[in-house]
Design a protein that fits this description.
With about 120 residues, this protein is mainly alpha-helical. About 70% of the residues lie in helices and about 0% in strands. The chain has two domains: about 1-65, no CATH class; about 65-119. It is built from seven helices and no strands. The protein is elongated.
Length: about 120
């Protein structure tokens, strides 16, 4: 994830990174990024813009084209152990829903699974 705004405008970073598993984080000092971006490195500028656009588009299309339940199931599909390491309090905002709504989704899915097992 690239925090382009904080590099370009020397503002405080508006996001936190929460690693739920062992992760590798590459930290590049803002001063170095500023020098590269303003030094005429057009290839780097274009690469960063493309990465950010792709991330933004993916998140937007995921949000617009899937229901909260679908987003939750997709999260479980991508990260099967997510409920072992993250609380509903952490998962709900990621899905852009309330904790109560997440609990209702989980209850509905559980009932559907139980119904399928019985039949």
């Amino acid at each position: 994830m690239i925090d382009y705004e904080s590099v370009m405008y020397s503002t405080k970073i508006r996001i936190d990174i929460i690693a739920l598993e062992d992760s590798e984080v590459i930290v590049i000092p803002a001063k170095i990024m500023w020098e590269r971006l303003n030094g005429g490195d057009h290839e780097l500028n274009m690469s960063l813009m493309m990465v950010m656009f792709e991330q933004l588009y993916d998140q937007f299309s995921e949000f617009c084209s899937h229901t909260p339940a679908q987003r939750y199931l997709r999260l479980l599909e991508c990260y099967p152990r997510i409920t072992d390491i993250a609380s509903y309090r952490d998962i709900a905002p990621y899905l852009n829903i309330s904790r109560r709504q997440l609990q209702r989704i989980i209850e509905t899915i559980s009932k559907e699974i139980q119904t399928k097992l019985i039949n």
